[in-house]
Amino acid sequence: MKDSKRCVVTGAAGFIGSNLVRALLDQGWDVVALDNLSTGRKENLEDLHGRTGFTFVEGDVRDQDTLRDVFAGASVVFHQAALGSVPRSVDDPWTTHDHNVNGTLSALLAARDQGVKRFVYASSSSVYGDTAVLPKVETMTPNPLSPYAVSKYVGELYCAVFARVYGLETVILRYFNVFGPRQDPNSQYAAVIPRFVSALAEGKAPTIFGDGEQTRDFTFIDNVVQANILAATADHPDLPGKAMNIGCGRRYSINELLRHLQEIMGTDVTPSYVAPRPGDVRDSQADITLARTLIGYEPSVGLREGLEKTVAWFQARRVS
User: Residue limits of the NAD-dependent epimerase/dehydratase domain (predicted)?
Assistant: First the structure.
C-alpha cells in the first residue's frame, strides 16, 4: 500500500539532503534517508535517529537491489544524491559521470518500477554555462562548461524522457549556488561561503579565484527546501518533465559576498586572489518566474539574512 506522505531522500546525509529531511519530518512525512556516505556525513543526521518517521539506509543509488527495497511504497523520491563540484569533475570526469548520470538513471528506473508518483531531481544552474543575457531563463539553450554541468544536464534529459515515455511525474529544480548550515567547509572542493566563513574565523586570508567580480545568485538552503516540498506537492498540469530555476533572482559579486561576511563576523582580513578555475562561469542569476507559476515558489530568505544564519550556525559549532 503506497503512503502519500512516505518519501525517499537520496543523498540524505549531504548538505541539502539533511536539511530537506528535517523539514519533511517537521511537516509529518515519513522519510527514508538513503546515502552511501561517500561525501555525505553521518553527523548531519545523528540527532534524527529514533525520531518517529525517520529511517536511515546506507546504500548507493547505483545499486538497483537497494533501490527496489528503499523505493517500495514511496509516493515521492527527492533525488539529491550527486557528486558535486565543478573542479572535481574537471579532475575526474568519469567518477562524476558514474555517480551523477548512472546514479540518476538507476534512481529513475527504480522509481518507475516501484510505482513512485513523483520524482524531484536536483539539477544545477551550471547547465546554462556562460550567457551574455541575464537573468537565465529556462528557454535558453544549455551550454555546459564542465563535466559536472554535463552530468546534471543529462540527468535532466532522462527526467524529461521518463515523464514523456513512462508517465513518471518528474520535476527538475535547477539550483543556484545554495548555501547554509551543514555545508562542509573542509573538503578541497568546498563551496565558497563555508570556505570564507572558515578562513575568516581562523584569521586566514580567504582565497578568491579570479578578480572576484564574477557574480552568483546565492540561494539560502531554506528556499531550496521549500522549493523541493512545493515541487512534490504542486498540482500544475504543465509540471511533469519541466525544469525550473530555484534562486533568488538577484546576483552578487564574490567581492560583495566577502564584504558582507567581514561585516557580519567583524573582520577585515585581506583576501588572496589566484587564477580563475577552468569550468567556472562568469555570471549567474536566476529568472524564477516559471517556478512561481508552476509550484508557487517564492524565496523567503535573502542573502544577508541567510549569511547571518549561516555564520551563527558555524560559530555555535566551533564553540560547542
Answer: 8-247
What sign results for the dihedral spanned by CA atoms 189, 101, 98, 69? Answer: positive
How far is Cα 152 from Cα 174, in angstroms, rounded to an integer? 9
Does any domain span residue 126? yes
Q: Is residue 204 a part of any domain in this protein? A: no
Residues 6+ apart with CB under 8 A from 177: 125, 191, 216, 217, 218, 219, 247, 284
Measured between alpha carbons, how far is 124 from 164 in angstroms, rounded to an integer? 21
Among positive and negative, which fits the CA dihedral 53, 45, 216, 92?
A: negative
Under DSSP, the state recorded for 185 is S
Q: Estimate to the nearest angstrom the gap between the alpha carbon of 191 and the chain centroid.
A: 12
**Conformation bin of residue 75: beta by default, left when phi > 0, alpha when psi is -120 to 50:** alpha
Q: What is the distance between the alpha carbons of residues 221 and 181, in angstroms, rounded to a whole number?
A: 8
Residue 263 lies inside a defined structural domain of this protein? no
**Distance separating alpha carbons of residues 203 and 173, to the nearest angstrom:** 36
pLDDT along the chain (320 residues), means of 10: 81 96 97 95 92 96 95 97 89 96 98 97 94 92 94 98 98 95 73 90 92 94 98 95 97 95 93 87 92 97 96 79
With the C-alpha atoms ordered 286, 287, 289, 294, is the resulting torsion angle positive or negative?
A: negative
The whole domain housing 61 covers 6-179+219-249+286-300
What gap in Å lies between CA 101 and CA 158, rounded to an integer?
9
pTM above 0.85, yes or no: yes
